[in-house]
Amino acid sequence: MYPASVTPDYSAFAAGVVQRPVVSVNPVWIVDDDRSIRWVFEKALTRESIAHRIFSSAQEALKALETETPRVVVSDIRMPGESGLTLLQKVRERFATLPVIIMTAYSDLGNAVTAFQGGAYEYLPKPFDVDDAVELIRRAMNENQETQNVVETPESAPEILGQAPSMQNVFRAIGRLAQSNATVLITGESGSGKELVASALHRHSPRAMQPFIAINTAAIPKELLESELFGHERGAFTGAQTTRRGRFEQAEGGTLFLDEIGDMPPELQTRLLRVLSDGHYYRVGGHQPIKASVRVIAATHQDLEARVKQGLFREDLFHRLNVIRLRLPSLRERREDIPLLARHFLRKSAKELNVEAKRFSDNVLKYLSSMDFPGNVRQLENLCHWLTVMAPAAQIEIEDLPPEIRSESAAAADYNWVTALEREAEARLARGETRIMDELTNQFEKALILRALAQTGGRRIEAALLLGIGRNTLTRKIQELGLDDTGN
């Protein structure tokens, strides 16, 4: 058996196809302490006639690096002894343009950003599809451009968690944007984590030692928002007894995060556009321009294009903000992350409250994964905090969930079986599983047969009639599926 971290399709390897001779060029290096993964790459690269060398540790690869030059390096990130990140660093020191692909089963933001900041060509989370991995290697072989070499930022704990492909794309984007000063527009539903992403962009940037200032433009009254953003001079209006620094001034040298930018009043949109255009602003009541050295990251849950068409948002400001757009998926678009996030929030709440952490039963995790979570990650975190306080036992069961969650989840689960099948297939494909058709078909047939036999009290003839198949077919299916039935 091979571990769940990689589940390749071995049919092509067992087909007995005569392999073409491997072309003699600088080889691709595979570095992983997992023998099964080394075997998979060995077979896949041989099949594709890609010259390669296999190493079981970073130390072996580093020793070979003294006398040899690989074409591409594919390395696991966590191995006994030297890590894949150390290998990445050493390779980049000797060969600045050599592509290094980092593999890891630990899908958190810290690893993704650290890998990209260390100069990785790409980040390959396990489990992966073997054909996709080979295609990535081919692309790395064909490209001869220098990747960005930036300084590592130590990361003690994951800032954002996610194993879903959509979140991996977000992690990659954060890694690539870390060294940029470009304005970023983050879109996504309320509670999906837009401020977390903005904070991560700041923390992994050259401005990390400078302030990160966040302001929710929808939460501040219109008449106060201008002063909040730009500050005011003493005597600028009634009650302005002292000069006040605004958020732009507070964020000098760092990052200003403007949340819910879609709700900004039109007159302030004009002032913001002027700052983004020429880099200067005035305090309210002031006459001296102040130069702004601030990276602006904006976020909204609204459709800004629609608001532009409705005349509610300036088109020129939209284009100024929309230099790079980063969309965060809703929680229902990455259901496979719900168990991971739920466990994390349960541990986090226990630590904050200084109590022993509770645990979810498998049934609860499946139950939560069926929910749509209109409040997204924030709603899930609040739920876990509530359960830490209110659940009576160490293991959380469905009956421990708040009544409104149970009723909401029951309603959410009332979808047709085709939707459930689609979600199961999607989850298995994302994990890189193979032979999905056979396994799901067998499970489908087992469920039908067992339900029909239960309906007829085990009488096969009646069960076959209900299913619309012959009695002999039913008997054969029972034998093939290993069902223990002693009916007529």
- Number of helical segments with 4 or more residues: 20
What characteristic shape results from the CA principal axes?
Answer: globular
Named CATH architecture of the largest domain: 3-Layer(aba) Sandwich
Derived structural class: alpha/beta
Kindly identify the CATH topology of the largest domain.
Rossmann fold
Radius of gyration: 28 Å
- Taking the alpha carbons of the first and last residues, their distance comes to 38 Å
CATH class of the largest domain: Alpha Beta
Detailed description of the structure:
The protein is of the alpha/beta class. The protein has 4 domains: 13-167, Rossmann fold, CATH 3.40.50.2300; 180-235 and 242-327, 3-Layer(aba) Sandwich (Rossmann fold), CATH 3.40.50; 331-412, Orthogonal Bundle (Helicase, Ruva Protein, domain 3), CATH 1.10.8.60; 435-480, Orthogonal Bundle (Arc Repressor Mutant, subunit A), CATH 1.10.10. It is 44% helix and 11% strand. The strands form 4 sheets. It has a 5-stranded parallel beta sheet, with helices on both faces. The protein is globular and about 95 Å long.
Which properties best describe this structure?
Rossmann fold; 4 domains; disordered N terminus; 20 helices; five-stranded parallel β-sheet; 488 residues; Helicase, Ruva Protein, domain 3; alpha/beta
